[in-house]
């Protein structure tokens, strides 16, 4: 019987989608999105600093993000859910999560990467982890790489990854060697 009624996430999704009681406009370069300050502040320490309690601005610019990324980011902050994401979307949301300090979104995107890491994209995930100093993601991808080192490192993508930043090759090989030594 209870399942026939909306849950809290569905209620918040409805509030967001219907723009009911929204109290802030998020502006990108080409669009505006209605949102709820409380939800933004609850999910992001950066937004909490930008929108202190009491009198705060009626609008906030997020010109560093694309419209679709802002839309998905706001939906996540209102519902804690990610639906129908792909690699590109996850990458954009991951970067937005880091920029706006939305830890749950960062972790969910990291989980998406780890669930979908393959020989062909391991270098891209490792590069992303390096760029954002994400030690957890970097370590897990290095584990993936170390188990498949020969097969992965002969790929063209891996060659480009190493070419773009040779110290990463040394660090990854060192990490692989240490893991092998620890397992012996």
UniProtKB/TrEMBL annotation:
Transmembrane regions listed in the UniProt entry: none
Domain named BTB: residues: 22-86
Classification via PROSITE patterns: BTB
SUPFAM superfamilies per record: POZ domain
Gene3D superfamilies in UniProt: Potassium Channel Kv1.1, Chain A
Domain of life per record: Eukaryota
PANTHER family: BTB DOMAIN-CONTAINING PROTEIN-RELATED, HL07962P-RELATED
Protein name per UniProt: BTB domain-containing protein
Species the sequence originates in: Araneus ventricosus (Orbweaver spider)
């Amino acid at each position: 019987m209870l399942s026939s009624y909306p849950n809290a996430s569905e209620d918040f999704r409805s509030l967001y989608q219907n723009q009911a009681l929204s109290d802030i406009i998020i502006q990108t370069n080409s669009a505006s999105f209605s949102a709820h300050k409380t939800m933004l502040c609850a999910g992001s320490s950066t937004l909490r600093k930008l929108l202190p309690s009491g009198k705060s601005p009626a609008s906030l610019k997020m010109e560093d993000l694309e419209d679709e990324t802002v839309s998905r980011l706001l939906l996540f902050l209102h519902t804690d859910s990610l639906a129908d994401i792909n690699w590109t979307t996850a990458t954009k949301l991951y970067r937005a999560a880091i920029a706006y300090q939305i830890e749950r979104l960062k972790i969910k995107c990291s989980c998406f990467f780890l669930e979908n890491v393959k020989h062909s994209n391991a270098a891209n995930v490792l590069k992303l982890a390096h760029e954002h100093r994400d030690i957890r993601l970097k370590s897990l991808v290095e584990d993936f790489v170390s188990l498949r080192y020969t097969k992965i490192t002969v790929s063209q993508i891996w060659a480009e990854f190493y070419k773009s930043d040779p110290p990463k090759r040394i660090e990854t090989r060192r990490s692989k060697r240490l893991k092998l030594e620890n397992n012996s």
